[in-house]
């Protein structure tokens, strides 16, 4: 009994000291963690009994929308029509006290959640857009951006700025998701994409840092090692956008390169996310993880490890799409991260910085 009391006292003291030193209450820290999370959910509409409603009330930073349920392609997940989607996004924004990030994957080609059969514009894949010139690209991405804006979506996980280096790359290159092999071509057409999104007040997200175009494997399915295929020129699009102050958000890749970090894949790497991207390249915006339920991460790291490494590495927003695995809840993420803050395994300073970056970005839109 005495041992239990001693442990309880020590834990109480730890909590008190932490909060006293940093000046944040438990509730404030939990809301800051919540703001760092982007969640996928099931539902074409939302009401007060839905978990996503309660999550947004608790301070959830963002949602990601999908058209179909991956476990049953005949079932609608979030998007049935333009009119329905507009009602859904409006409802989601109304729930939130802060500006809610409402995101989607709308690149064009094989990756577009808003389909022409549901009343949205059809967008060609990136390689086809690049083959038809700048005027075609401007018109194409103007229509895409307008669709997003009219539907109440304020963030697009696009454009892909990966270079088409490896012709056998099955996740980017053979699917036509890259604008080309040269950084000049990629910069030209991704800039047009970003500019058209910005005109419609939609946040663009460059992906997949530090480059996925040279990979041989798909990080959805498992571990991806780019040590022997990656080339430093894959950083050139990021250098351009950062130098010209044209990027607010970048997405990490679940790729491993022992020349950049001997131990961790990019999403979990301080060497890559802070030392390379932030310190060397000068990026001070929001860094969002790729889906943390993808097998390249979830098969190798548990929730505690993932949250600790990702947040400490400099990731600002944690994406859990709830597409590939058993759905994870906001409570699980927040409770786990909060316990790791108390044990000082997660830096509270990184959480505060992440919130500052998110607030700064959202204030622009």
UniProtKB/TrEMBL annotation:
Enzyme class: hydrolase
Leader sequence residues: 1-20
Protein EC: 3.2.1.52
Membership in a protein family: Belongs to the glycosyl hydrolase 3 family.
Keyword tags: Glycosidase, Hydrolase, Signal
Pfam family, one: Glyco_hydro_3
All residue ranges annotated as the Glycoside hydrolase family 3 N-terminal domain in the record: 47-358
One of the record's GO molecular function terms: beta-N-acetylhexosaminidase activity
Protein known as: beta-N-acetylhexosaminidase
Database matches in InterPro entries: GH, Glyco_hydro_3_N, Glyco_hydro_3_N_sf, NagZ_Beta-hexosaminidase
Keyword Hydrolase assigned: yes
Reaction catalysed by this enzyme: Hydrolysis of terminal non-reducing N-acetyl-D-hexosamine residues in N-acetyl-beta-D-hexosaminides
GO terms classed as biological process: carbohydrate metabolic process; peptidoglycan turnover
Entry keyword Hydrolase: yes
Domain of life according to the entry: Bacteria
